[in-house]
Each structure stands twice: as structure tokens, then as C-alpha cells.
Amino acid sequence: MSNYPNMHDVDTVACVGTGTIGGGWAAYFLAMGYRVQAWDPSPDAAEKLGRLIDAAWPALTELGLAPHAAKDNWSVHAELADAVAGVGFIQESAPEDLELKRELLAKIDAAAAPGVVVGSSTSGYGMTEMATAAASPARLVVGHPFNPPYLIPLVEVAGGEGTDPAAVAWASKWYDFIGKSVITMDHEVPGFIANRLQEALWREALHMVDNGEATVEQIDLAITDGPGLRWPLQGPMLTFHLAGGQGGMAHMLDHFGPSLKSPWTRLDAPELTEELRGNVIAGCDEEAAGRSVDELIAQRDAGIIAVRRALADLPGGPA
Amino acid sequence: MSNYPNMHDVDTVACVGTGTIGGGWAAYFLAMGYRVQAWDPSPDAAEKLGRLIDAAWPALTELGLAPHAAKDNWSVHAELADAVAGVGFIQESAPEDLELKRELLAKIDAAAAPGVVVGSSTSGYGMTEMATAAASPARLVVGHPFNPPYLIPLVEVAGGEGTDPAAVAWASKWYDFIGKSVITMDHEVPGFIANRLQEALWREALHMVDNGEATVEQIDLAITDGPGLRWPLQGPMLTFHLAGGQGGMAHMLDHFGPSLKSPWTRLDAPELTEELRGNVIAGCDEEAAGRSVDELIAQRDAGIIAVRRALADLPGGPA
Question: Which parts of the sequence belong to the 3-hydroxyacyl-CoA dehydrogenase NAD binding domain (chains A, B) (predicted)?
Fold first, then answer.
């Protein structure tokens, strides 16, 4: 087992692939005060990356830069080996092509110093299938961000079969250390968690358009002016916990359980077994962490007001 | 065909059913300056409604009250006929029970003056099936709000087979007039639009819990700290329009179309026909309304920053 870096000593990171996602990562690392060494096969990579960082910088400045953050503290290297030399962490953000990812991760692994963890931005592949060509898959971890990576906190972390659990733990701590919101997954689920949920909604939306049941604009308005206003505050589970009134999720499942089978989406419902019922209720209780339904409602309402006021103050109003 | 009221002359409305949703409507109408006459079979309806209005009033005050809004400008009536007497609009928010709704809507219709439109808060039934017992279904319309109705702007409006199209148009204008964000549907789709989308996501979440792929807390965090931060600004369609880079939705569909079939959710994907592709792209173009991808990205980023700052300023931070 390798020794992983002391993250307090890390001052330079590598971004391999500098498209929208990789470039977004680069901007974020710069804002957090790191030096960024980048590699990308595109001939105009430096120019594109510069534009991307320029575009992201005002937003990052507004959210707060680290003390020594410098917008120009980056370099694009012609050789991958030069980009990963001397860095304390590597973020891979190549296009979503399995063969390409396999080869690239093997090359990164071959070039990087031992113990340096590599996080892949893949939006759906598991590390088990991506690490097949790498000599030392132990340090290869999925670290899936959301667009734009410089503004959305979520990173989903998962290892593959060959990944060292200590590397998964290091990556989770590292992303947390640099200010991200981390979900560490036990399983390799295709699409991880957020993309699975997004994708279910997206497919239902496509079906509605396909059947002439709703237009694209109606679908977006239904979310932005409806449940979307709650979701930055309370996720879908806690939302339904509150929909159950004082009885919470237990009342919700017992009351609306039967209508789970009603044809409100094309997605089949799972059987609402005692076990599933129990797990969902226990999860909500855990998440509520002692807050009563009334307290959660008060927090939700304060949050919705804050969000609506913030959006109303934007130039031109909500998008 | 009836003459519908001039909405500028409406000063009193009726709320039939004063649970969480009906009481939330009552609070909203009061804040908009209307007098509210309520009816509910519960013996402690007045007490409960008072508490609900008390709880909602600070939020409504913060969002801005109408000039003559008064928190105590309401009454609960023992007889349904008294509650609907002299009002310019009736919002029905009874429990989600088809037989109960049928009987209640027939009673409301029998008691209300001609031409007064009745909006039902049903979260899934179509008006065709709910209006079967009513003598004059022409003025019966679905007006589906989101919880809490005093904070979430969305109202989905749809008529049934027996509904006068002019009543549907009146209801849409009315909800818009009182500050709501209105979707007028051409079709009676079970669950309307937003609940269909929510439900797809909810079922996928239940499957994940059922299979041990994610915990309740991970599911909520995946939304609140991930795509949920974008959804108050840009719905799922516009989100994917931006995921396509400068090529927008067309690039997105052509590039990720094949992976539509990948098992990222249990929901089957529709066939991506030329027609569906065209409709989705055209819808995004219409919604973008001339804004370039760069402009949409700038608006999105400004919005996410505003939302994140607003949430960070809440006491206790995001829920």
C-alpha cells in the first residue's frame, strides 16, 4: 500500500483534459489557491483554458478566493509526464469514451509519482472497467463533479475493485478539504446517484414531449417555478417527509403507498416492502437529526424565501 | 356559456378544505388582499386555519403583502353554501379521494353563483373523472398548486371534457393575476407535469434505497448540493441544452443519444426519432429566446451564486 500525500502539503495539482469540466476544475483549484498543471491534446488548449478561467473568475471571486489564489497560476504542458510531475493530486476529465479513458488512466498512472491519487470526472463509468489497462489501479478513484465544477459543490466518490480503500478515503477527504460536498459510495452504480435521479426525470420529460403531453418550456417551468425551488434546500426524500404532515415519511408511505402504483410516470415502482418502508423512514429520521416537521417546514420556508429574493434581485430576474 | 367575473372586481374568495394545501391557499389569498371564506368538515378547522395562517404570515410579509392585506380577514362557515356565497372564485383542496372530490365538487357547484370558477387542488385526478356528479361541469377546472402554496408560484391548470374552454382561460388568467406562475395544459395527463417528473425521480430513489445503492441522506445530498442548485434557475431541458456546449441541445442529443439507452435509470428511454429530436431542440431554442449558450451560462452562474449566498446567510445554513 502506498503512502498518500499529506494534503496540507499539496500546493500543485494536475488537470488532465481541459474541456468544460476539466477547465472548470482548473478554475476551482486556482481559486482554492493551488497551482494547476494541465495537459490536453487539443492544439488550442491553452487559449481555451484561459478563456474558461477568465469566465469563471468573477463568480469564484464573489464566492471567496483562498488567500494566495492567483488567476494565472497555471501552465499547459505538451507532455502528459510534465503535467503530472510534482503534483499532489490529479483530476482526469477526458471525453466520455471508455477506451480513451482506459488508455489515458494507464498513461497517467505510469507517469505520476507513487501515492498520488487520480480522480476521474467520468459521469457514468465505474473505475473497475476504466482501470483495466493501468499498472497500479490502487490509486484510481472516481471523483464525479457537476457542471459547472467551480460552482456546484457535489462530488461523488467511488473506487473500483482494484482501488485501495485508503485511496477512496483519501480522495473523499481531499475533496472535502478543498470545499466540496462529498458522497462516498459503497457501490459502483452506473451513473452514480445524482445522474441516476436526473436521468429518470430527463427520460420522463422526453416521453412527455414525445407524446405531446408537455412542451419543453412547460417542463422547465414546471421545475423552476415548482419543486425546483425546494430542491436546493431539501432533497426529494425530505420533501416527501414534509408532505406527510406531522406523521412525516411514515404517514406519507402509508397514505400514498397505494397510489405509488398509479401511472404517474413510466417508471415501475418498487414493491413497498416492510423493509423498504423501514429504511426510508429511518433514513428520513436520521437526516432530520432531531428537527421536528415544524422546524423543517420553517427552515424550508426561510430557504425558499431566500432563494426567491436572491433570484428576484438578479439583473433580468430568474433565467 | 356563463359570464365569468371581472377579476378586478373580485374581493372575496372561498377555500373549501383547509388542510395544509387549502390553508396555504387561504394564507396566500389573504396576503394578496382578498377576504377568505372557508369551509372544512373538521370540528377544529378555525383553530387549525388560524395557526396555519400565523405560521405563513411572516414569510408572506417578507415577500410583500398587497396594500389592503389583513391577516384576520377570514371566516370559517358551518355551511358550505355560506362559504361560497358572494365570492368571485372558489379553490377546492379536499383530501385526494376521488369519490369525496366528486361529491364535494357537485355540492360546491350546486351552491355557488353561476359563472364563479372552481379550481381544484387535486394533485393527480383529471377534471373529467372528478366532475361526473356536477350539474354544471363547465366552470370546474384543475388548479394544482405546490406545497407550500403560499411560497411556490407554480399552478398547473387543466380542464376536463365538460369544462368550458373559457373557464380554463379565465382560471389561467386569474392565477396569473394573483401572482402565480401558470402552466395551462392542453391534455389531461395523470399527475400533470411537475408531479410526473417528481415521481420519476422519487421512484428511482426508492429503487436505489431498495437495492442498497444509496441511502436516503445520500439521495437528498446528491440533489441539494448537485443539480438541485441549478433547477430553480434552469429546468432539466435547458440544463441539458447547456451540457451540449456551444452546440446546445442538438449536440447533446447527437452526442449522448446512444447512451440514452444505458442503464442509468430503470425508466425505459423513448426512441430518439427525428421528430422527437426536432421537437426538443426547437423547444430549447424557443425557451432560450435568442440568448446564446454563453449568455445562458452567465445567467446560470449568477443565479447559482445568488442561491448559494442566500442559503449561506440563513441561520444554521442550508437545511
Answer: 12-185
Both B31 and B132 in one domain: the answer is yes
Nearest to A193 by CA among B227, B193, B196: B227
**In terms of C-beta density within 10 A (0-12 exposed, 13-18 middle, 19 or more buried), how is residue B44 classed?**
exposed
Alpha carbon distance A158, A187 (integer Å): 7
Residues B151 and B257 in one domain: no
Alpha helices in chain A (DSSP H): 20-31, 45-63, 80-84, 98-111, 127-130, 165-177, 194-210, 216-224, 236-243, 248-256, 274-288, 293-312
| pLDDT value of residue B190 | 85
- What ipTM did this prediction achieve? 0.92
pLDDT tens string B4-37? 999 999 999 999 999 989 999 999 999 999 999 9
Could you say which residues from 153 to 212 on chain A have a Cβ atom under 8 Å away from some Cβ of chain B?
153-154, 156, 181, 183, 185-187, 189-210, 212
Contacts of A147 in chain B (CB under 8 A): 242-243
Which residue in chain A has the smallest CA separation from B153?
Answer: A225
Digit-coded pLDDT (tens) for B268-281: 777 878 888 888 89
Number of domains in chain A: 2
A228 has a pLDDT exceeding 60: yes
**Spatial contact of B94 and B108, defined as CB atoms under 8 Å apart:** no
Say if A197 falls within a structural domain: no
Q: Which of B160-164's residues contact partners 24+ apart within 8 Å by CB, and which partners?
A: B160/B126, B160/B127, B160/B128, B160/B129, B160/B130, B160/B131, B160/B188, B161/B128, B162/B127, B162/B128, B162/B131, B162/B134, B162/B137, B162/B138, B163/B127, B163/B131, B163/B137, B163/B138, B163/B139, B164/B1, B164/B2, B164/B138, B164/B139
CA A98, A28, B251, A192 torsion-angle sign: positive
Chain A nearest-CA distance from B300, in A, is 7
Identify whether residues A239 and A179 lie together within a single domain: no
CA distances to A12, A32, A53, B244 from A48, rounded to whole Å, are 21, 21, 9, 17
Record the cell numbers describing residue A4, joined without a space.
498518500
Instruction: Return phi, psi of residue B182, to 5°.
Output: -110, 135
Is residue A16 located within the same domain as residue A165?
yes
